[in-house]
User: Which sequence fits this backbone?
């Protein structure tokens, strides 16, 4: 530290001013790059995330209202496929919904309940298939686990489907 002070004192006045200016510019640059810019970027990311989460919450609220409305409409609608096997209905409707290749296993648990495993299924196709199963056949998931698939828009799902009592 003493050698640095001697070096600095040995400089001409104009050189000292230039060294001090360079140190000030370097300090400001380091502050900007090390503190200000990361904080500013984090704040912008959080604002974007909050906006996304708010829009997602609004969509979910609307979807919940629509689900309640659809559930109310379903009452009184005649259920089809009462005399058919649950396994054959699940197999047939999954193929019709474009999920035939994704179905890995359909295992009976009782006359009115089956375990179904899907891999690489399109998320939208899965949701619409489950909706149609409930609306048309009175079959709904008693348990459902969905995981994000490797490809965008795909999921893997394990579910227990149960037919409503007559």
Assistant:
């Amino acid at each position: 530290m003493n050698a640095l002070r001697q070096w600095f004192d040995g400089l001409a006045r104009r050189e000292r001013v230039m060294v001090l200016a360079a140190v000030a510019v370097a300090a400001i640059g380091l502050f900007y790059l090390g503190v200000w810019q990361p904080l500013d970027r984090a704040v912008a990311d959080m604002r974007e995330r909050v906006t996304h989460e708010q829009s997602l919450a609004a969509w979910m609220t609307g979807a919940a209202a629509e689900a309640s409305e659809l559930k109310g409409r379903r009452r009184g609608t005649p259920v089809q496929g009462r005399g058919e096997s649950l396994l054959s209905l699940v197999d047939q409707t999954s193929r019709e919904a474009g999920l035939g290749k994704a179905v890995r296993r359909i295992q009976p648990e009782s006359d009115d309940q089956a375990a179904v495993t899907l891999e690489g299924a399109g998320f939208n196709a899965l949701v619409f298939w489950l909706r149609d199963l409930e609306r048309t056949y009175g079959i709904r998931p008693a348990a459902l686990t969905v995981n994000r698939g490797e490809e965008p828009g795909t999921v893997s799902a394990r579910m227990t489907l149960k037919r409503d009592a007559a």
